[in-house]
Design brief:
Distance between the termini of chain B: 28 Å
Order of helices and strands of chain B: HHEHEHEHEHHHHHHHHH
Number of strands of chain B: 4
Strand order of the largest sheet of chain B: 2-1-3-4
Largest interface: A-B, 30 and 24 residues
Structural class of chain B: mainly alpha
Helix content of chain A: 25-40%
Number of strands of chain A: 14
Shape of chain B: elongated
CATH class of the largest domain in chain A: Alpha Beta
Shape of chain A: elongated
Largest sheet of chain B: 4 strands, mixed
Strand content of chain A: 25-35%
Oligomer: heterodimer
Radius of gyration of chain B: 28 Å
CATH architecture of the largest domain in chain A: 3-Layer(aba) Sandwich
Distance between the termini of chain A: 35 Å
Strand order of the largest sheet of chain A: 6-7-8-3-9-10
CATH topology of the largest domain in chain A: Rossmann fold
CATH superfamily of the largest domain in chain A: P-loop containing nucleotide triphosphate hydrolases
Number of domains of chain B: 2
Chain lengths: ~300, ~375
């Protein structure tokens, strides 16, 4: 049975604002590492809040660990771990006090499940008498993860755990998630960073409250419509405007120091045609090659179809 | 239970690690009591007075000396003319003037009606009335002195006795009122702010997504503040007794129990405020400003409730502090027991139960 399910869930925060979620359905298998990928305001936090029984949906049903989020909210609250998007521990309590408080609140002790958090806790243990408010972003996230894990939850909900965290800590964080997955904990994690998507087993791309697609990262990349090209030049930012005006251009956008683009049809002479068009516009040293799309390219392609 | 205790301990950590909370908790009561006890008083002492003595005889000088000797008056000048009086009043420094007419002493000794004129600045009517009363009293006293055996037929001599507070000490009236005011503000502010802080910091989300029941969250918030408010109460009582010479004539146990009841009703009010506000600032504004003014106006320790039109009297009856004030005065000053104040106690208990029920019911088990 699926550990987390959502069926046709809709949620609106008011009549005059666009709905936060429209008809969202997906399910997460037991022991899976599932990612919700989407930009800010896509509705990721709303999904988390509905699943953690903090919000009621307007329409649709949802279950967590077999319990209904409305009827059996009390059972769900005992068996999930939740890490909200904003750092939400007591800033005026030390690392140790925070951990001890949350362990007791969940009716357990730090020692009882120490094995589960040991790897993470040992990294912040040298600072255990420091107040949480004085920790760095990465250490805060580790502490928050410890607190969310201390009662060995069945399901772990992590709302943008890596936002505002440096690159090294982000990498470490995902490694920790892989280890937790091996402990059999179902993990639902959201992130606005597309490069983290490939670290999940399955992902849901989400935009303006709607699911664009749900699959493994590899399948989502495989399903990319058509071919994707990368355009390189010494001064790439000057190219964007002219490239977009090329006849037959479907999409063109900046991706790091290159331009990613796709054509409306698969006619063979498009790449060469584009190069000569750009040369006629006075651009020099431009090269083009076909590349494998990443999740971000898939996301952009999906969004444009959607619109 | 263990969860509950850990939660309570966490609340104490919050309080003792936050300077602002500590300041409100312990600075506010001391400041208020001292302020109301010493600085803010309706008594008038050392009012400046002008004496214009056209008589210049023994009688007028004796009376002038008596006025000067009383603690209520300081003689500003005694050699002024009539015109000077009005100039002095216009400057506003002098509140009152006494004029002895020519022949004052002669009239007095010859059994005629001797007159003196008292002029007061009535732009503040209460002060003017008080000062003229003082002067009349001094004059009467003088009359008694010079003629103790006078036997005027059919004379009524009122013998007044100021019960419970013979010295007419103003702080007797204020301290019970300030007790109500301070406890009200501290209890509502601290509880409401502490819950709203959890909302603002996002920790409420985690608390809700835990097996700890929301009702317990409310109770675990209230318990530490109840304990701290009781400490506050003791500080206030000590200050009142030691610094302001207030008596506690009734049972201290009864006073503490009644105060506990009042504190719980204020805590419940704070919990209620917290469930309708979102930011610490709003919670603070609502509980400090929103509570302070009605408490000052409608508790009865500054403005007498009896003279208010009925809609205002009705409002005053809705305030727990109004009933607590009556109870404290009865127990502290009059030394009365529960037999006399059971009605007020019952009203207060009813309000407490009602407020606590509403605040627990209105505490949301989900966000928004």
């Amino acid at each position: 049975m699926d550990t987390v399910t959502l069926q046709n869930v809709s949620k609106s925060y008011g009549k005059n604002v666009p709905p936060a979620l429209q008809d969202v359905s997906f399910s997460v298998k037991k022991g899976e590492l599932f990612g919700l990928i989407g930009p800010d305001g896509a509705g990721k936090s709303t999904i988390f809040r509905i699943l953690t029984t903090l919000l009621l949906s307007d329409k649709g049903t949802a279950t967590v660990a077999g319990y209904d989020v409305v009827k059996n909210y009390h059972e769900i609250r005992s068996c999930v771990g939740y890490m909200p998007g904003k750092f939400s521990l007591y800033q005026d309590l030390t690392i140790e006090e925070n951990l001890h408080f949350f362990a007791t609140l969940f009716g357990t002790t730090v020692e009882a499940n120490y094995a589960l958090i040991k790897d993470i806790y040992e990294q912040i243990a040298p600072f255990k008498d420091r107040r949480a408010g004085k920790l760095s972003g990465g250490m805060k996230q580790k502490l928050a993860l410890c607190c969310a894990l201390v009662h060995r939850p069945e399901v772990l909900f992590l709302d943008e755990p890596t936002t505002g965290v440096d690159a090294v800590s982000r990498k470490e964080f995902w490694e920790m998630l892989q280890r937790l997955k091996q402990e059999g904990i179902t993990i639902v994690v959201s992130t606005p960073y597309m490069d983290e998507a490939s670290l999940c087993e399955r992902i849901a791309l989400i935009q303006t409250g709607q699911i664009l697609s749900i699959d493994t990262p590899a399948n989502i990349i495989k399903a990319y419509p058509g071919k994707l090209y990368a355009l390189r030049a010494p001064k790439v930012y000057l190219l964007l405007k002219d490239t977009r005006q090329y006849e037959g251009m479907a999409q063109c956008y900046a991706a790091g120091d290159t331009l990613h683009l796709s054509f409306k049809d698969e006619a063979k002479d498009h790449p060469a045609g584009l190069l000569s068009w750009l040369e006629s516009k006075g651009h020099k040293g431009v090269s083009i090659e076909e590349i494998t799309p990443d999740i971000e390219d898939c996301f952009i392609a999906k969004t444009s179809i959607h619109e | 239970m263990k969860q509950f205790m850990v939660f309570v301990r966490k609340e104490f950590y919050h309080v003792f690690r936050d300077r602002r909370t500590l300041l409100i908790l312990f600075g506010l009561p001391v400041m208020q009591i001292l302020l109301f006890g010493y600085a803010l008083t309706t008594e008038i002492k050392n009012a400046e007075i002008i004496v214009v003595d056209h008589a210049g005889d023994a009688a007028s000088q004796q009376l002038t000396t008596m006025i000067a000797a009383s603690k209520y008056f300081d003689i500003n000048a005694s050699d002024k003319s009539d015109e000077d009086i009005y100039k002095a009043f216009k400057k506003g420094k002098v509140k009152c003037a006494v004029v002895f007419p020519i022949g004052f002493g002669n009239d007095l000794l010859n059994g005629e009606v001797a007159q003196i004129q008292i002029i007061a600045d009535a732009s503040d009517p209460n002060t003017a009335k008080t000062l003229t009363n003082y002067l009349t009293a001094i004059t009467a006293e003088y009359q008694q002195q010079i003629n103790p055996t006078a036997n005027i037929p059919m004379r009524i001599e009122p013998v007044t006795r100021m019960l419970y507070n013979p010295e007419l000490n103003g702080s007797m009236n204020f301290v019970p009122g300030v007790m109500a005011l301070v406890l009200m503000i501290i209890c509502t502010t601290l509880t409401s702010v502490s819950i709203v802080r959890e909302k603002e910091m996002g920790t409420m989300e985690i608390l809700l997504v835990s097996p700890f029941k929301p009702t317990y969250v409310v109770l675990a918030k209230a318990v530490p503040y109840l304990a701290l408010s009781l400490i506050d109460l003791i500080i206030i009582l000590l200050l009142a007794v030691v610094a302001l010479n207030m008596p506690i004539r009734g049972s201290i146990i009864l006073l503490l129990l009644e105060s506990t009841l009042f504190i719980i009703s204020c805590l419940s009010l704070g919990l209620l405020i917290s469930s309708v506000t979102r930011s610490q600032q709003t919670a603070m504004m609502v509980s400090m400003m929103g509570m302070m003014l009605p408490t000052i106006l409608f508790t009865g320790f500054i403005f007498p409730l009896e003279n208010m039109p009925w809609p205002l009297q009705f409002i005053s009856n809705l305030l727990p502090s109004r009933w607590f004030y009556v109870i404290v005065k009865a127990v502290m000053l009059k030394g009365l027991g529960i037999g006399v104040i059971w009605k007020e106690t019952l009203v207060l208990a009813g309000m407490t139960v009602l407020l606590l029920t509403i605040s627990i019911k209105s505490f949301k088990t989900r966000l928004s």
